[in-house]
Design brief:
heterodimer; A: 199 residues; mainly alpha; 8 helices; B: 218 residues; two-stranded antiparallel sheet; 9% strand; elongated
Chain lengths: 199, 218
């Protein structure tokens, strides 16, 4: 009897072959991008099948590379076809005027309590919601600077782990706080994408 | 691992746990080659192209300022740095990542030319590069699944890596290293961008040489 890994490998290869057939038959450029993304995602299953801690750590870079290539291809497509940027009318809903402060406050406080990566994501979602609904002023440089310093602190915490392992508590605190700030600021930038020429 | 014929003698070894970045005679040669071209991209001014006026002896020289090619220059230097990483990494997955990065920066170099045909070629190369990434990661993952490690240092000379993984890696590098073909197709060599376009050819050549070394070693 074949073991689980080999069965999974076989199924994945069948999926890859099917998506390749789709790619060869497809003529439309924008559909090609979507199918290539499908192939990439199916390819990541090959990494997932290994199912160890190391494989888990390899998924993230694989995803990041895939997403960056997808973004690049779509930007290239927009420039190639000389597509105009759509002019979007912002939606006017009453909830979007009143709800943001309190929901953002709750999410940010909860994020700070959680701390670390997930806390950063929660607080970031709060800020995304706020910026989306309330608009923003141009403070990108400030957000980027904060994010950069937080990243440096995070890397510094890793050096503390490696060089002085006795001081693990301060390293954990440093890394948790820094990643909280970094993820929050990065995600807050998403909320500013609704309008404005500089984004 | 340095008794294998392809590597030559050991020059420098940098250990990070089981991942060992090594410089043999072979990889050092590749490293220095890439370094030379990075320096060239840093110090070189853009080439000034000439146009011959038809029917006469007159020649126009186009004025191309360094500012016009800022993005292309940055991408060329980034591509060189990715190549440096790819030729000296001692880990199959890092090699795959750096090779994927070379693909992305290659497209950056080509895509800064604002010409429909060039952009079309860049787009087609982008699709090939994205598909190739699947093979690269698939190859590294298959090697990890069967051998339990990704370190070239530990796999060297044992012949444990299955043939399928090696074929995947070579296919992936073929896809990423196909950029010069698309450059010829789009005739980007005629568009302004020399000498930065050269980096595409250099990186493609070096990742091919490096993957041959990896295949013969593991």
């Amino acid at each position: 009897m074949m073991d689980f890994y080999q069965v999974g490998l076989f199924c994945t290869l069948v999926c890859v072959v099917i998506s390749f057939l789709a790619l060869f038959r497809e003529r439309d450029d924008i559909h090609k991008i979507l199918i290539v993304d499908l192939i990439e995602t199916v390819g990541l299953v090959l990494v997932c099948l290994v199912a160890t801690d190391l494989a888990e750590a390899l998924i993230l870079p694989g995803l990041v590379v895939g997403i960056s290539e997808l973004l690049m291809l779509t930007e290239l497509y927009i420039r190639k076809e000389r597509l105009p940027l759509p002019a979007i009318q912002p939606i006017r809903i009453e909830v979007m005027q009143t709800a943001p402060p309190i929901i953002t406050f709750v999410l940010v406080v909860y994020g700070i309590i959680l701390s670390g990566f997930s806390g950063g994501a929660v607080a970031g979602i709060g800020l995304v919601f706020y910026f989306l609904c309330k608009g923003y002023e141009e403070r990108f440089a400030l957000l980027e600077t904060i994010s950069g310093y937080a990243w440096a602190l995070w890397i510094g915490a890793f050096f503390i782990f490696m060089i002085v392992p006795q001081a693990w508590l301060i390293a954990v605190m440093l890394a948790g706080g820094a990643i909280l700030v970094k993820v929050t600021t990065k995600m807050a930038l998403i909320g500013t994408m609704r309008e404005g020429p500089d984004v | 691992m340095f008794n294998l014929p392809i590597e030559g003698e050991e020059l420098f070894v940098l250990e990070f746990g089981d991942i060992v970045n090594y410089f043999s005679l072979y990889t050092t040669t590749l490293f220095l080659f890439a370094l030379a071209f990075i320096l060239m991209a840093i110090i070189a001014r853009p080439e000034r192209q000439t146009d011959i006026v038809f029917g006469t002896d007159a020649v126009y020289i186009k004025e191309i300022k360094p500012d016009d090619l800022r993005f292309q220059r940055f991408m060329a230097i980034a591509c060189g740095c990715a190549t440096l990483g790819a030729v000296c990494s001692g880990d199959l997955f890092n090699f795959s990542l750096f090779t994927a990065l070379i693909g992305i920066t290659n497209i950056g170099i080509v895509a800064s030319v604002n010409n429909r045909y060039v952009l079309n070629a860049a787009y087609n190369y982008g699709i090939v590069a994205m598909v190739a990434t699947t093979f690269l990661f698939g190859g590294a993952a298959t090697a990890l699944g069967t051998c339990g490690t990704l370190s070239i240092w530990e796999l060297a000379g044992k012949g444990m890596v299955p043939l399928a993984a090696e074929i995947f890696l070579v296919l992936g590098v073929m896809g990423e290293g196909m950029a010069p073909f698309y450059i010829a197709k789009a005739e980007i060599t005629r568009a302004p961008g020399a000498p930065y376009v050269l980096m595409i050819h250099v990186s493609s050549l070096l990742i091919f040489l490096r993957v041959i070394e990896i295949i013969l070693t593991v």
